[in-house]
Amino acid sequence: EVQLLESGGGLVQPGGSLRLSCAASGLTFSTYAMNWVRQDPGKGLEWVSLISGSGDTTYYADSVKGRFTISRDNSKKTLFLQMNSLRADDTAIYYCAKGRGDITFGGVIVTWGQGTLVTVSS
Amino acid sequence: AIRMTQSPSSLSASTGDRVTITCRASQGINTYLAWYQQKPGKAPNLLIYAASTLQSGVPSRFSGSGSGTDFTLTISCLQSEDFATYYCQQYYNYPITFGPGTKVDVK
């Protein structure tokens, strides 16, 4: 069974930084694209970023481009999201999410973590 | 970015009803469309991808159709566990975008 466990969320001041991690188990991690998707509690879903299985290719939502960096360590089956210059509108639950395949179907999300809450507030 | 819209934004239905939700893309996306179900306090769950392919383990009362810009999700006979919010998502190009959601609640 595939499991994804996020960590690293919390309260941060505007302009601050936070690094999210996602530990994966039960899969050949390097085979799959991985995503971060966020959701302001009570609101809709927003895709944030995707990284290919090899880590060579990354994509970002316009709202986070230049501020967030996605990366992965395939040897440790871990996904990361480095978030800098955080703003109040970055407040959300952040989900680690496994794609159905690599790039072509990587954005089809078949497995989700439980989510970690990031709150940006002074 | 491709903009996804859904209609209606909410609907009230009864168990046993046939329910149809519409999703429209601002440009053609072939069949690069997925549907997700989300219940309160839970992560979303993939129902359909490639517009009409049922994800493994999803009940056959769920079906999807469409291509290009117009898509539908149909629940043929609504069950109590189907009251939830449904999102469409395009993965035709980046950035990936979701629709705003359709909430299905009890009439």
Structural features, described:
The complex is a heterodimer of chains A (about 120) and B (about 110). Chain A contains no helices and 11 strands. Chain A has strands spanning about 5, 10, 20-25, 35-40, 45-50, 60, 70-75, 80-85, 90-100, 110, 115-120. In chain A, strands 2, 4, 5, 6, 9, 10 and 11 form a 7-stranded mixed beta sheet that branches. A 4-stranded antiparallel beta sheet of chain A has the order 1-3-8-7, with no helix packed on it. Chain A is globular. The model of chain A has no long low-confidence stretch (mean pLDDT about 95). Helices cover about 0% and strands about 50% of the residues of chain B. In chain B, strands 2, 4, 5, 6, 9, 10 and 11 form a 7-stranded mixed beta sheet that branches. The mean pLDDT of chain B is about 95. At the A-B interface, strand 5 and strand 10 of A face strand 4, strand 5 and strand 10 of B.
Query: Which parts of chain B are unreliable, with pLDDT below 50 for 5 consecutive residues or more?
Result: none
How helical, in percent, are the residues of chain B? Answer: under 10%
Rg result of chain A: 13 Å
Number of strands of chain A: 11
Q: Biggest chain pair contact, residues each?
A: A-B, 22 and 21 residues
The global form of chain B is: globular
Mean pLDDT of chain A: 96
Gross morphology of chain A: globular
Strand-and-helix sequence of chain A, N→C? EEEEEEEEEEE
How many beta-strand segments of chain B? 11
**Structural class estimated from helices and strands of chain B:** mainly beta
Q: Helix segment count of chain B?
A: 0
Distance between the termini of chain B: 36 Å
Quote the beta fraction of chain B: over 45%
Structural class of chain A: mainly beta
Assembly context of the chains: heterodimer
Order of SSEs of chain B, N→C?
EEEEEEEEEEE
SSE layout and pairing:
The complex is a heterodimer of chains A (122) and B (107).
Chain A (H helix, E strand, L loop, with lengths): L2 E5 L2 E3 L5 E8 L8 E6 L5 E7 L6 E3 L7 E6 L4 E6 L8 E8 L9 E4 L3 E5 L2
Parallel strand pairs in A: 2-11
Antiparallel strand pairs in A: 1-3, 3-8, 4-5, 4-9, 5-6, 7-8, 9-10, 9-11
Chain B lengths: L3 E4 L2 E4 L5 E7 L7 E6 L6 E5 L3 E2 L7 E6 L2 E6 L8 E7 L6 E2 L3 E5 L1
Parallel strand pairs in B: 2-11
Antiparallel strand pairs in B: 1-3, 3-8, 4-5, 4-9, 5-6, 7-8, 9-10, 9-11
